[in-house]
Design a protein that fits this description.
heterotrimer; A mainly alpha; B alpha+beta; C mainly alpha; B: alpha+beta; 5-stranded antiparallel β-sheet; 9 helices; 27% helix; C: mainly alpha
Chain lengths: 282, 385, 299
C-alpha cells in the first residue's frame, strides 16, 4: 500500500517533470499565435487567434530574413557533414583495418583532438581567417568543424566490427583500399552515418559561439545568430509574439525530424557515445 | 583463363610465438583438384591465405606456373577464393555480388559512376559484364535470387552466390576454404557432387581446404594431409585410404575410429597383441614395437576361441545404415574396438556375447613407435639456432 | 635454405593506403586544431594585437592581468557555482527520471521524447521563451508562484537570483541527454540480475537499486558526469542571449568573458590566456575520466 502510494507519487512527479520539459515549447507555440496583450496578461493559457498568428509570423519574416538564416544553416551544416564524413570515414577505416606505421600516434592525436573544444583554437583561427579575408563567409563557418574526432572514433568502432573476410574477398575481387571505404564500408555503416549526421547537424545548427565570432553581416547569419540578432535589435521592437514566431520557425524543423526518428537516433547515438566513454590511454 | 600449376616451396609462417606453418612444400598440377585435409588449427587455412596473397610467408616461395608470387598482390594473382562464411557483400544484391569482381576490374573509377552508362563504350562493357553474370547465374541456377541481398538467402543459396562470384572472372586458380561447413548434411552431399563436376568441366586448378575426410575423399584428385603445420602425406584418395603413412593420418581417415593396439613384431608378418599371435602383413621389422591399427571394415567377428583372433565381449551395437558397428571390449584395452558387420549377421551378436575379433592381415597396419619427443626437441633446437 | 621475403607488395600497398587514407584527417587535425591550440599558448605569452606585424614576449604578464581581474575572478566563481548546480542537478534528476521511465511500459516513448526535446532545440530560441516565462510581472512561472503564495521574483534582473535561473535553464537543457544515456545503460542490465537480487533478499526497489543498478551503471554515470561537467563548463548561449553577463557580472561565465575579451575588445593576449586556462581545465577533466575509465575496466 505504502509502496503503491510512493510509486504513484513518483509517477505523478514524472508527468509533471515532462510537462516542465515541454512547457517552453508549448508556450512558445501558443505565444507565437497570440496577440501581444494576451501574452503579457499573466494568463496561464493563451488564446491563439489566426489574426494574431498571421501578424506575428508576417512581422518576423518581414523584419528578419528567417528563410535566409535557415538556408545558411542548411548549407553550412550539410557542408560540414559532408566534409566530416569524407575525412573521417577513410581515417576510421585505416585505423580499424590497416596496419601502418604511426597508427598509434595518429590515434593518440585524434583522441587529444577529441578533447579540445572549439573555443581554444578560436583566436588563432579567427586571426588566420581575418588575414585571409574570409570572415563573413561560409568558409569561415565550415572550416573549423570539418575535422571531427568523434566521427573518426565512431567510424573506427563501427568498421572494426566489419568482417575481415569480406575485406579480403574485396581485395581479391580487385577493390582498391579506397574503393573498400566508399563502396563497402560506408554503405554498411548506414545507421552510424545517419546517427552521426543527425548529431552533427543538431550541434552545428544550434551553435552560437563560432558564428558570433566570424559573422557580422546579416545575410551570412545562421539561425541562432539570426534570432539572437533579431532579439537584440530594435527590429523585434519588444514584439514577443514575433520573436516567438521566429523561434518556432528555426526550432520546429529539427524538433519534428527528431520526434520522428528519435528511436533510431537514440539507439544509433547511445552505442557510440557509450563506446567513447570507454576510451582509455593505449 | 588457362589453368595454372602451383609450386609451394618451403613456406614458413609464424603468428607471434606460434609456428603455424613449418616448411610446407606442395606441387599442384594444372587442372588438378587437391584437397588440404586436417584437423582445425593445423594451418590449412593459413596456407590457403598465403597462396591467395592475403598474408605473406615469413620465408619460402609460392610459384604459379613457374612465376614467383612474392611481389604480386592478391588482386593480380588470378585467384578466386570462396570463404567458409562466404564473405558476401552484405549491402549488395546477389547480382551485384557476382558482378563485383568484373565491375572492379574492368571499369575504372569514372566508368563506375551511375551516369557513365550513357557513354557507348561503358554501356558495351556493362553489357558484357551482364552477359557473363547471367551465364554464371544460369549455370549455378541462382537466377531467381539475383535481386535478393545475402541476408535474405539461405546458407546454400549464399554459398552458390559466393561460388558465382568466384567463377565469374574465370580464375586460373580456385581456392575454397571449407565452403560446405555451414550447410546441412543433405545439401552438403549434393553441392559436393556439383562442385566436383563443375571443376572437371572447367578444368580450373583447385585447392580445397576441409577437415571432413569424406569430403576430401569424394572430390579430390589428390589429398594433402596436414597436422600441426606440416604436410604428412600427399596421395590419391585411394592410396591414402589403403596406405596411410603414419598413425595420425590413419586415425584421421578412419570412420568412425581407428582401433589402435600396442603390438610387437615377432617375425615378419606376425605381431604379438595382448598375448595373441596375429597375422599382419604390414609388420615387416622383427623386434619393433609400435601400434597395430585397423579400421572397422578390416576386422570380422568370430566365435570365441578362434585361433589368431583377439578375445573380447560385445559391449554395444550402433546402427549405421546398411552396416552395423559392433563395439567390442578386448582384454587389456582402454577403448573398445569397432568392427563393421553386415546387418544380416546381427542376430548372432548381442551385447554381452563372448566373441573374438579377427583382423584382415592384408589391410591392417603396423606403425612402429616413433621417438616423438626427440623429434619435437630437434625442431625446437633448430629454431633456437 | 629458405630465403626471407621482404615486405610484399600487399604490405607496402596497405601501409601506403593507411597513410593516404588518414592524411586528410591528420592534415585537418594539425592545421585546424593542434596548431591553433599551440598558437593560442604562444599568443598568451605575447602582447600581440590584431593587425600587428610583430609581437613581444611578455612572459606570464597576461596570466597575471587576467587572474587579478575582478571580472575574470567573478566569472570563475560564477562558472563553478553554475557547474556545482547543473552537474548534480542534471545527473540526479536524469537518473531519477530514467529509472521512472525505464519501469513503465505505457507512455514510455512519450516521456522519452519530452525529455529529449530540449537537447535538440536551439538554445537561443528556447532562451527567449524562458525569458518570457520568467518575466518579473507577467511570466507564467511567477503567476504559478504567486498562486502558491510565493512572492514574484525578478529572476533575470536580480543579481542574487539570475545565476540560479540560468542554471535552472542549464539543467532543463542537459537533463534529457543524461536520461537518454542512463536509459541506454539501464537497457544493458540483464533482468536475471534483478531476479537474482530479489531471491537474495533485496526486496525493496531501493535495495535493488543499491545492489544492482548503481554499480552496473557506474561506467555510464562516469561518462555522464564528465560530459555534463564539460558542457556546464562551456555554458555560453543562455548568458550571451539573456543577461549579457549581468546584472552586475552576476552571470558572466568563463566562456562569456573569453568571448568578450578576445572578440569584442580584441585583446588577443589576455583572451588567449583565458583560452589556455579553459583548455587546461577541460584537459584535466578528460584525463581524470580516461584514468577512471581505465581503472574501472581493469578492476
Amino acid at each position: 500500500m505504502r509502496d503503491q502510494l510512493r510509486s504513484s507519487a513518483a509517477n505523478g512527479l514524472l508527468a509533471l517533470a515532462s510537462l516542465v520539459m515541454v512547457l517552453p515549447f508549448l508556450w512558445m507555440a501558443m505565444a507565437s499565435m497570440a496577440p501581444q496583450g494576451e501574452i503579457f496578461s499573466g494568463a496561464v493559457f493563451l488564446k491563439p487567434s489566426l489574426q494574431a498568428a498571421w501578424n506575428n509570423y508576417a512581422f518576423a519574416f518581414s523584419r528578419a530574413p528567417l528563410l535566409r538564416y535557415m538556408a545558411n544553416g542548411v548549407i553550412v551544416c550539410l557542408a560540414i557533414i559532408v566534409c566530416q564524413i569524407a575525412i573521417a570515414a577513410p581515417a576510421g577505416y585505416a585505423l580499424a583495418k590497416l596496419p601502418f606505421r604511426g597508427r598509434p600516434l595518429v590515434f593518440g592525436a585524434i583522441v587529444i583532438g577529441l578533447m579540445i573544444p572549439i573555443q581554444v583554437p578560436a583566436i588563432p583561427l579567427y586571426i588566420g581567417l581575418a588575414y585571409a579575408g574570409l570572415l563573413d563567409t561560409y568558409t569561415a563557418l565550415v572550416l573549423p568543424f570539418i575535422i571531427s574526432g568523434f566521427a573518426i572514433f565512431l567510424f573506427r568502432q563501427f568498421f572494426s566490427a566489419y568482417p575481415d573476410e569480406v575485406i579480403d574477398a574485396a581485395r581479391l575481387d580487385g577493390f582498391s583500399e579506397f574503393a573498400i571505404v566508399w563502396r563497402l564500408m560506408l554503405p554498411a555503416a548506414g545507421p552510424a552515418v545517419a546517427a552521426f549526421a543527425v548529431f552533427s547537424f543538431v550541434a552545428n545548427w544550434n551553435d552560437l559561439y563560432w558564428p558570433l565570432v566570424v559573422i557580422t553581416r546579416p545575410e551570412m547569419m545562421t539561425p541562432p545568430l539570426g534570432i539572437a540578432a533579431f532579439r537584440a535589435s530594435g527590429d523585434s521592437a519588444g514584439n514577443v509574439g514575433a520573436l516567438m514566431a521566429g523561434g518556432i520557425v528555426i526550432t520546429l524543423p529539427l524538433v519534428i525530424v527528431f520526434t520522428v526518428i528519435q528511436k533510431h537516433f537514440i539507439r544509433g547515438m547511445a552505442a557510440p557515445v557509450a563506446s567513447v566513454s570507454m576510451i582509455s590511454p593505449s | 583463363m588457362t589453368p595454372c600449376s602451383i609450386e609451394i616451396d618451403a613456406i614458413c609462417k609464424r603468428f607471434g610465438g606460434h609456428q603455424a606453418l613449418k616448411s610446407i612444400s606442395l606441387a599442384v598440377r594444372a587442372g588438378e583438384f587437391v584437397s588440404i585435409l586436417g584437423p582445425s588449427g593445423c594451418g590449412k587455412s593459413t596456407l590457403l591465405r598465403l597462396i591467395a596473397g592475403l598474408d605473406d610467408p615469413d620465408s619460402g616461395d609460392i610459384r604459379v606456373s613457374g612465376n614467383s608470387m612474392a611481389s604480386v598482390g592478391p588482386r593480380d594473382r588470378g585467384v578466386a577464393f570462396v570463404f567458409q562464411n562466404y564473405a558476401l557483400y552484405p549491402h549488395l544484391s546477389s547480382y551485384d555480388n557476382i558482378a563485383a569482381p568484373l565491375v572492379m576490374r574492368e571499369l575504372n573509377g569514372f566508368e563506375r559512376l551511375p551516369g557513365a552508362r550513357m557513354l557507348p563504350s561503358v554501356a558495351r562493357k556493362r553489357r558484357s559484364i551482364d552477359d557473363r553474370v547471367r551465364a554464371i547465374a544460369q549455370m549455378l541456377q541462382v537466377d531467381p535470387w539475383l535481386t535478393h541481398k545475402p541476408g535474405q538467402l539461405s546458407g546454400g543459396q549464399r554459398q552458390r552466390i559466393a561460388l558465382g562470384r568466384a567463377l565469374v572472372r574465370e580464375p586460373r586458380l580456385f581456392l575454397l576454404d571449407e565452403p560446405f561447413a555451414n550447410l546441412d548434411a543433405a545439401l552438403r552431399h549434393q553441392t559436393r557432387a556439383e562442385l566436383a563436376a563443375l571443376q572437371k568441366r572447367l578444368g580450373t586448378t583447385t585447392i580445397f581446404v576441409t577437415h571432413d575426410q569424406s569430403e576430401a575423399m569424394a572430390m579430390s584428385d589428390r589429398i594433402a594431409v596436414m597436422f600441426d603445420g606440416t604436410i604428412r602425406q600427399v596421395a590419391t584418395p585411394d592410396e591414402l585410404y589403403r596406405n596411410p603413412c603414419d598413425l595420425d593420418v590413419a586415425r584421421f581417415l578412419s570412420q568412425p575410429r581407428l582401433t589402435c593396439m600396442p603390438a610387437k613384431v615377432i617375425v615378419e608378418g606376425w605381431v604379438m597383441i595382448g598375448g595373441e599371435h596375429v597375422a599382419l602383413a604390414d609388420a615387416n621389422m622383427p623386434g619393433a614395437e609400435g601400434i597395430a591399427g585397423f579400421r572397422p571394415e578390416h576386422a570380422t567377428l568370430r566365435p570365441r576361441g578362434t585361433q589368431g583372433a583377439l578375445p573380447g565381449i560385445v559391449e554395444r551395437i550402433e546402427h549405421a545404415g546398411a552396416d552395423v558397428q559392433v563395439f567390442v571390449r578386448l582384454a587389456m584395452m582402454d577403448e573398445p574396438c569397432i568392427v563393421r558387420v553386415g546387418s544380416q549377421e546381427l542376430s548372432r551378436w548381442t551385447p554381452g556375447t563372448s566373441c573374438s575379433v579377427a583382423l584382415d592381415a592384408a589391410s591392417g597396419w603396423f606403425f612402429p613407435r616413433r621417438p616423438a619427443e626427440t623429434a619435437s626437441t630437434r625442431i625446437r633446437t633448430v629454431e633456437a639456432a | 635454405m629458405t630465403r626471407p621475403v621482404s615486405p610484399s607488395q600487399r604490405v607496402v600497398a596497405q601501409r601506403r593506403a593507411g597513410l593516404l587514407l588518414t592524411s586528410p584527417a591528420i592534415l585537418a587535425l594539425v592545421l585546424l586544431l593542434l596548431l591553433p591550440s599551440s598558437a593560442v599558448i604562444v599568443l598568451s605569452l605575447t602582447d600581440y594585437q590584431l593587425g600587428d606585424r610583430a609581437a613581444h614576449y611578455v612572459g606570464l604578464a597576461n596570466y597575471r592581468i587576467v587572474s587579478l581581474d575582478r571580472d575574470f575572478q567573478h566569472s570563475v566563481r560564477n562558472t563553478l557555482v553554475f557547474v556545482a548546480i547543473v552537474v548534480p542537478g542534471s545527473i540526479g534528476l536524469g537518473l531519477f527520471f530514467s529509472l521512472r521511465i525505464e519501469g513503465r511500459s505505457r507512455f514510455r516513448s512519450l516521456y522519452r521524447t519530452a525529455f529529449f526535446l530540449p537537447v535538440t532545440a536551439t538554445l537561443v530560441a528556447m532562451a527567449t521563451a524562458w525569458e518570457v516565462l520568467l518575466h518579473p510581472t507577467f511570466g507564467l512561472v511567477n503567476t504559478v508562484l504567486f498562486a502558491l503564495g510565493v512572492d514574484k521574483m525578478r529572476f533575470l534582473s536580480n543579481p542574487g537570483v539570475a545565476l540560479f535561473a540560468i542554471a535552472a535553464i542549464g539543467i532543463w537543457k542537459q537533463i534529457g541527454f543524461n536520461v537518454v544515456l542512463f536509459l541506454a545503460g539501464l537497457s544493458t542490465i540483464p533482468r536475471e540480475i534483478y531476479e537474482a537480487a530479489s531471491l537474495d533478499g533485496a526486496q525493496s526497489g531501493w535495495r535493488r537499486f543499491l545492489l544492482v543498478t548503481w554499480p552496473m551503471l557506474a561506467p555510464v554515470t562516469l561518462f555522464v558526469t564528465v560530459i555534463s561537467t564539460i558542457r556546464a563548463f562551456s555554458e555560453f548561449d543562455t548568458v550571451a542571449v539573456l543577461t549579457d553577463g549581468g546584472p552586475v557580472h552576476s552571470t558572466s561565465v568563463i566562456l562569456f568573458v573569453l568571448y568578450e575579451e578576445a572578440f569584442r575588445y580584441l585583446k588577443i593576449g589576455t583572451g588567449s590566456a583565458i583560452a589556455v586556462m579553459f583548455l587546461v581545465f577541460v584537459a584535466i577533466l578528460s584525463l581524470v575520466q580516461t584514468h577512471l575509465a581505465g581503472r574501472a575496466r581493469n578492476a
